[in-house]
Write a structure and sequence with these properties.
With 318 residues, this protein is of the alpha/beta class. The protein has helices spanning 7-16, 28-41, 51-57, 59-72, 88-96, 111-126, 159-169, 195-204, 220-228, 241-249, 259-275, 282-303, 310-316; strands at residues 20-24, 45-49, 78-85, 101-104, 131-136, 142-143, 146-147, 173-176, 210-212, 252-257. The strands form two sheets. It has an eight-stranded parallel beta barrel with strand order 1-2-3-4-5-8-9-10, surrounded by ten helices. Strand 1, helix 2 (28-41) and strand 2 form a beta-alpha-beta unit. Bound molecules: 1,3-dihydroxyacetonephosphate. Residues 24, 83-84, 143, 182-183, 213-216, 256-260 line the site of 1,3-dihydroxyacetonephosphate.
Length: 318
């Protein structure tokens, strides 16, 4: 099966109260780990590529890796998605490069300008059967080159603005600011999401898929390994998995995860280096790191309620 768009995935996810995992890919091992989990759990998948990933690995390498994943897994619906495209030009480039979904993130611009940029991307992307995710409100944290705001609670998405934005821009899904942030340091005290924002938007836009960025949980298993084996992430804190689970049952249809992948990889590599200081074969530390990613992603798929959903997405067609 060729790459698909998010359309049917989101329809099914919305209707049946789950979310599709959107995992960031930066290299072969990360992609292979994700794919192995997805194949086992029979879950639809969104593989997303950020600006940092393109800078690091180059689009042609990432594209080739994803092409292999698609060819080797013909029964799994897979979306290739641009994460945080901040200009029309980069979104157009990705549409031309064969992405099946792009995110235009013009959220740093004033409301009207955000609508104008998003609308332009929508017109081009829809002309090529590519879905568009947009963003309204401001996320916190730093991920790759995307710098967010410090106090995430100040810039939550306003439900009335969301309605106007979606109608005026024509976007297919909307990333909302509901208290999450990018990176490993999401909360200073108690983790808390603004479920009322998600609920408020979904009441005003029934059936419309919402997206939650900054959704890594900063799993204790990996945080502890990193800290035990020479790392220093004592204050790292993520979104509790019960909160992700709750959001997935609401209008959140896509949940973005990058930090948890990075931490799984880093933890395992640190462990191998600490326990086997003489090891210098990359396969001996990247291999366990890839397995850790696979196990972590399989677990996330369960949290998202997305196990065994391939059948219904395929039956819905694209
Ligand atoms: P995390 O940093 O929580 O993994 O979020 C990633 C993300 O939202 C990518 O857009």
């Amino acid at each position: 099966m060729a790459l698909v768009t998010t359309k049917k995935m989101f329809e099914m996810a919305y209707k049946n109260g789950y979310a599709v995992g959107a995992f960031n890919v930066n290299n072969m091992e990360i992609t292979q780990g994700i794919i192995a989990a997805i194949a086992e759990e029979k879950a639809p998948l969104i593989l997303q590529i950020s600006r940092g990933a393109r800078k690091y690995a180059s689009m042609s390498y990432l594209r080739a890796i994803i092409d292999v994943a698609v060819t080797e897994n013909p029964d799994i619906p897979i979306v290739m998605h641009l994460d945080h495209g901040d200009t029309f030009e980069i979104c157009k480039q990705c549409v031309d490069d064969g992405f099946t979904s792009v995110m235009v993130d013009a959220s740093k611009h004033p409301f009207k300008e955000n609508i104008e940029i998003t609308k332009k991307v929508v017109e081009y992307a829809h002309g090529h059967n590519v879905a568009v995710e947009a963003e309204l409100g401001q996320l916190g944290g730093i991920e790759d080159d995307v710098v967010g705001v410090d106090d995430v609670t100040k810039y939550l998405t306003d439900p009335d603005e969301a309605v106007e934005f979606v109608r005026a821009s024509g976007c297919d899904s909307l990333a909302v600011a509901c208290g999450t942030s990018h990176g490993a340091y999401k909360f200073k005290t108690e983790p808390k999401l603004a479920f009322d924002v998600i609920q408020g938007i979904s009441e005003k836009l029934p059936g419309f898929p919402l997206v939650m960025h900054g959704s890594s949980s900063v799993l204790a298993e990996f945080k502890d390994l990193i800290n035990k084996y020479g790392g220093a992430m004592p204050d790292a804190m993520g979104v509790p998995e019960q909160a992700i689970c709750q959001a997935a049952k609401m209008a959140i249809c896509k949940v973005n995860i990058d930090t948890d992948l990075r931490m799984a990889l880093t933890a395992k590599i640190r462990q191998v280096f600490a326990e086997k200081p003489g090891e210098f074969d990359p396969r001996k530390y990247l291999g366990p790191a890839r397995t850790a990613i696979k196990d972590m992603v399989a677990h996330k798929i369960k949290v998202l309620g997305c196990v065994d959903k391939v059948g219904e997405v395929l039956a819905a067609g694209d």
